[in-house]
Amino acid sequence: MTFSLYDAVVPSFQRMLDSMSGLLEKAEAHCAAHGVEPEDLIGARLVDDMLPFAYQVKSTAVHSAGAIAGAIQGSFSPDQSEPGTSFAALAERIDRAKAALDALSEDDVNGLLGRPMRFVFGKHYADFTAETFLLTFSKPNFYFHATTAYDILRSRGLAIGKVDYIGQLQFKRFE
Question: Which residues contact 56 (CB under 8 A, 6 or more apart)?
């Protein structure tokens, strides 16, 4: 059985973005149930010098669908736009990323193998192949931001656990 670039990135991005959607729903429900102002949670940080929850959520979209779009274009720069100031705006960003991933075919992603890819940040850049960019840069960043978003919510008292982070597992069916 051949293991493809598509298999290595897209299903895990999709599953974790589904988890992010669930975390956003739980965060909004937590605010309503406990009288927490949504902006207090949306702007929450683990420590002062880290970026807030909203940025962490945005970055899961950026380092999944945005990274693949960049690989297709041959260049990726971090999204410097505002992440969103409401749960609805954050959920919309995640929904757009999920829709972009759903629209990709295996051929779209597997066809990127060996293609040159440039990461550009201001005056700095780094050259990759599409697969090394996705597997060694974007995927670790994706999981870092997903984990940090989860950790911020957990540190603020949300009743969430590992299953909320991991999401729906993909089991093999034996017939």
Answer: 145, 146, 148, 149, 152
Residues forming beta bridges with residue 120, ordered by sequence position:
125
Kindly list the structural domains of the chain, giving each domain's residue range(s) and its CATH number in brackets, ordered by start: 5-166 (1.20.120.450)
Q: Name every residue whose Cβ is closer than 8 Å to that of residue 142 and which is 6 or more positions away in sequence.
A: 13, 16, 59, 60, 63, 64, 67
Cα distances (Å, whole numbers) of residue 131 to 28, 64, 105, 113: 36, 13, 16, 6
The average confidence (pLDDT) of the chain is 94
Query: How many whole angstroms separate alpha carbon 31 and alpha carbon 128?
Result: 42
Global pTM reads 0.92
Separation CA 130–CA 107 (nearest Å): 14
pLDDT band of residue 102 (cuts 50, 70, 90) is very high
Structure tokens at 168: 């729906």
Angle, helices 139-155 vs 53-61, to 10°: value is 150
For residue 23, what is the enclosing H or E element?
A: helix 5-34
Is residue 169 pLDDT above 90, yes or no?
A: no
Identify any residues that bridge with 127 across adjacent strands, giving them in sequence order: 118
List, for residues 15-67, the tens digit of each pLDDT value: 999 999 999 999 999 999 999 999 999 999 999 999 999 999 999 999 999 99
